[in-house]
Structures are given as structure tokens and as C-alpha cells.
Target: Thiamine-phosphate synthase
Amino acid sequence: MRLDPFYLIVDRAEWIARLVPLGVKLVQLRIKDRTEAEIRGDIRKAKTVCCAHGCQLIVNDYWQLAIEEGCDFLHLGQEDLAGADLRAIRAAGLKLGLSTHDDVELETALAAEPDYVALGPVYPTILKQMKWAPQGLGRLSEWKARMGNLPLVAIGGLNVDRIDGVFAHGADSAAVVTDITLNSDPEGRTRQWLEATARWRR
Ligand SMILES: Cc1ncc(COP(=O)(O)OP(=O)(O)O)c(N)n1
Ligand SMILES: Cc1nc(C(=O)O)sc1CCOP(=O)(O)O
Ligand SMILES: [Mg+2]
Model:
């Protein structure tokens, strides 16, 4: 399986309606602190937009809703994974991406036979508090060597200037939140990301 090199992560279906039509091909809906009904509604809206634009939608955390709403790709962290029914997820045909932050988490992730592994935070992030120090680029190369052909997603503190570095160190896709959502021109920044990742979109 091949992932698009530009992996956008947003917290509302509205972002997906704004940015996916610009040419984004891989997007995660990562919603925190909303009701189940609201999240379900956002998943439905996101699915419709992604379907219309040939964009892969990945649902974060809410594996039961992803199954119920007929989604096809899910992202789980290690704690999410511990509480999830992997057999039900696979039986529903969902592909699965997993977070990792250290050696033990990588072993756990690989044992679950995911469709990609994410490593973070590569750089300091302002999105959320993290208990891990920034991994640095060398850690991406280490992960890639241990993962074989499995796609590797880099996440945490990425911006347009850091894209080439993560790909040169083995990442297959670069995930980003605040460099786009907190930018004064999110559409313009999205276009920059699309352009900067074009050479890695082989
Ligand atoms: C691509 C990608 N990588 C890592 C994460 C983080 O997942 P998790 O550790 O479960 O933390 P939350 O995002 O749920 O706060 C991710 N969402 N996407
Ligand atoms: C959601 C998330 N997970 C991470 C991990 O390391 O698992 S880093 C991160 C935040 C990514 O946001 P930004 O691009 O704004 O730094
Ligand atoms: Mg999670």
C-alpha cells in the first residue's frame, strides 16, 4: 500500500470541505471533546467530500463509529489499540495506522500488522502535550530500517521547510496539523504543502 506524501490532519469536517478540494489526497479527521452524534455527523460530511475528490479519509480514535459509518481507514494510538476490538476492525475491512513513540510501542504496533506506522513527535509540537522528547530525523531512519516495506508516517512539528528532511530519512508520508490550521492562509499553506510534496508523490 502506498500513502500520499502529504497527510493532512484536521479536527472538523469544515476543514475537509475547505482544503480537500485543493487536491489533498490523504486526510485524517481527529476530533476531541465532541459528542458522539457530532462526531458521527462530521464523519458523514467528511466521507462525502473525500469521496467526491478521490481523497483517502482516515478516522482517528473512534473505531466503532468508523465501522458503523462504513469507513475504510482508521488511526489508533497505543492506548486506543489496547481498548479496541482488532478482530472487529479487520472484519469490517478497515485499514489501520498506528502511533509509535518508542521501541516497545513499535514492537506492539508491528505485532498488530498495521497498514502504516507513525513515529512522533519528530519535532516539538504545540498541538498537544507529549511525554516523549522530539525524536529527531535519525529516529525515522531507524524506524524505517526496522519496518521493511511498511509505510512510515512522520508527525509532530512538521512544516513546509522540514518536508524534504523527513523524506530523506525514510518517511513515506508527512502528517501535519498546526502548520496549516493555525496559518493565516490555510488554503495557501495547503497549496505550498502540495507543491513541496509533489516530488515525493511518485
Ligand atoms: C498520523 C498520526 N500519527 C499519530 C497520531 C497520534 O495518535 P494518538 O497517539 O492516539 O493521539 P491522538 O491523536 O488521538 O491524540 C495521529 N493521530 N495520527
Ligand atoms: C496528534 C499528534 N500525535 C503526535 C505523535 O507524536 O504521536 S504529534 C501530534 C501533533 C501533530 O500536530 P502538529 O503538526 O501541529 O505538530
Ligand atoms: Mg488516539
About this structure: The chain has a mean pLDDT of 97. Residues 9, 28, 30, 60-61, 75, 77, 80, 97, 99, 118, 120, 128, 153, 155, 175 surround LCLJCK34 (ligand 1) (CB under 6 Å).
